[in-house]
Amino acid sequence: MHTAPRDLSRPPVAPSQGLRITPLGGIGEIGRNMTVFEHAGKLLVVDCGVLFPEDTQPGIDVILPDFTSLESRLDDIEAIVLTHGHEDHIGGVPYLLKQRPDIPVVGSQLTLAFLSAKLTEHNIKPVLVHVEAGGRHAAGPFALEFIAVNHSIPDGLAVVIRTAAGVVLHTGDFRMDQFPLDGRLTDLRAFGRLGEEGLDLLLVDSTNAEIPGFTISETELTPAIDQVFTTTPGRVIVSSFASHVHRIQQVLDASDARGRKVAFVGRSMVRNMRIARELGYLTVPRGLVIDYAKTRNLPPNKVTLICTGSQGEPMAALARMANETHEVRISDGDTVLLASSLIPGNESAIYGIINKLTDLGANVVHKGNARVHVSGHASAGELVYCYNILRPRNVMPVHGEPKHLRANGALAERTGVPTDNVLIVRDGVVVDMVDGVARIVGQVENDLVYVDGQTVGHVTEDTLADRRKLSAAGVLTVLAFLRSGTAELAEPLEYLHRGSVHGQDSLDNASRAVDKALADATRNKTTAGDQLEEIIATTVARSLARSSRREPVVIAVVLDA
Ligand SMILES: [Zn+2]
C-alpha cells in the first residue's frame, strides 16, 4: 500500500495524455463524497455531498467539500455525475451550482428527483441529464457508462469513465444483496465484462471493508420487523433515513398486514416518500397513509409513524422525542423501531437517547437487539469478489475513515493488486494516472467548509474553538473605564458573566494582573482602545486559567470614564 505523505506540495501541471484524480471529500471521513477527474483540460465531478457535523462542531448545519481548487476552473466542468441520492453524495450540489448553475447534472431517475426537490428549495433550476443502468453518456472527453449497483437507496449507479488515458470504475456506495427487495442486483456481469476489457483504476467503497464476510440481505429483516408489528400494544414509531425507500416499503407492508395506518412525520420524509411513490419506487395500498393529525383519533395499536430529522437523518428526530421537544410524544406501550445504523459517530449519545426513550415507556428495538437493520455497504467478502472479478491495475479506496481505507487496501493486495498500485490518499491529494500507472503527485486546498444558517465558509476552526469554550466555560465580559487618552483605570474593573462562574479571589487576582499590565502599557505609551482591550482580555484569560483552571471566552470593553 502506498500512503500519501503528510506534507505534499502543489501538484505540477496536469499530464496532457493522462488522467488526474482529485478527491475533495469522502476520504478520511464518512460523508461529503466528491471526486474530480481531469483529462484534456476538462473536468468531471463525481458526487458532491455533505458531511454531518459532530458534537465538537456546535451550530453547524452541514459541512461541504472545499471547492477552492475548482474556482478558476468552473467553466471546464463538463458534468456532475451522481451515483445515488444520499445526502452525503448530493447534498453539496446546490452550493456548487450556485457558483455555476448550468453545469449538467447526470444521474438516475430517483437520484435526480431527490436532487430537484432540494434545488427547488435553493431556487436553482438545474440542467438535468437522466441516465439508466446499462446506459452511456458522453461528457466532453469523458465517455461514461453506468452500471446498476444495490445500496440502501434505490437506483444506485456505478460509473465507468473511459478516456484516452484508460478505463476507470467508481463504484459509488454499493453492496451485493443477492435477494434485494426490488430485484435490482449489483450488475456483476457488467463488472466481469469490465474485467475482461481491462480496468486501469478502481475507486471503491470502503465503509464496511473491516467487516468480515457478507452483508446480509434486506429480505432477512422481514421476520424481525413483522414481529415488532405483531407484538406492539401501542404505536410503532419507526425512525429511518428519509431516503431508505426499501426499508419504508417493508414497514408499509407490515403495517398494512396488521391493519395499522401509517403517517410520515418530518418534512424531508413526507417530500421523499411523495417523490418515491409518484415515480413508482414505493407501492402504497390505497388509504394506508394518512396525515399525522388524523392518527390521534385512532387506537394506538392501529398506528405506525415513520419519522426522520430535519436533514433527513434519523437521530435528530429521536433525540427530540427523547427530550420531549418533538411533536410525537412517546407513551407507554409504544415501540420505537430504529431502522438505521446505530453509530454515526457518537455511541454514548445514542445509548443515552435509547435510555431516555425507554424511561418514557417505549420498547426500543434496534440493530443491537434485533435483526431490524442491515448496512448498505459491501463487507470484506463482497469486496474481495469485486477485486477478483474486476482485476484492476490500480486501486484507490474511497468513502471511509483512514482505518476503512487501509482495510480495503489490504483486501486489494491480498487479491494480487501490486502494493505500489494501491493508493491510500486523503481529501485534496492529487493522483495522476499516466500509461496505466497511478501515482500521488501533490495536494490542493482541502478545508472543512462549514454551512451555518445562511453563511457558507464564514465559520472557521477558530469560531468553533470559541463555541466549544463557550459551552464548557461560558463568557466573561470585562468593562474597563479608563481616563481618556490613557491606559489608567478610573474605576475598578467590572465583570459581567454568562455561563461562567469564578470565585471572588480569582477575579481579584485577575484585576491585580490587569493593573500590572496597564502599568506596562502606560510605560510603553500604549493608549489605543483596541490594543488595550486585547491586553486586558488576554491578561484576564491567563489569570483565570492559572487561578481557577477555567478558560471562558473573555471579552474586554474599554470605555472613557
Ligand atoms: Zn449511500
TrEMBL record:
One of the record's GO molecular function terms: hydrolase activity
The keyword Ligase belongs to this UniProt entry's keyword annotation: no
A Pfam entry, by short name: RNase_J_C
Location(s) in or outside the cell: Cytoplasm
Annotated positions binding substrate: H373, V374, S375, G376, H377
Chief site of localization: cytoplasm
CDD domains registered for this protein in UniProt: RNaseJ_MBL-fold
Entry keyword Phosphoprotein: no
EC number: 3.1.-.-
HAMAP family xref list: RNase_J_bact (MF_01491)
Functional summary from the UniProt entry: An RNase that has 5'-3' exonuclease and possibly endonuclease activity. Involved in maturation of rRNA and in some organisms also mRNA maturation and/or decay.
Protein name stated in the entry: Ribonuclease J
Organism (species): Promicromonospora alba
Species classification: Bacteria, Bacillati, Actinomycetota, Actinomycetes, Micrococcales
Protein's gene: rnj
